Amino acid sequence: MTHPQPVPPARGRWRLPVAALVAGLVVGGGAVGLVWLGSAAGSPDVETACAIVGRTTRLDPEADYAQYRRWAAAAELAAVAAEQDPRRQALADALRRPIEIVQATFRADGPEFDAAMTRARGACADI
Length: 127
Description:
The protein is mainly α.
């Protein structure tokens, strides 16, 4: 009785899947790198902070505490962006200043406050 001889594995067949895997990793890594580089120009934190600023109509904690807290969140997002990119520091400072005035004076009006709000909205408009 003869036993069938085992068929030796084909050589070279592993090269195609390995080459495809390596090419996929290189292309995927390149795509992620390009997205990362592109996001440095338009930080999601900055975009979100300025979107919040655009939706906030007043910064008076006595009249509407939710809007005051929203602005504070925008200022924190801008501070996060400034930690990652020092070019964002002016925006972070501009968004924080109206909050500092309210905390110091317990008022959300007056020339100093109005000027700070104008600077903050202008800083977002410049982005």
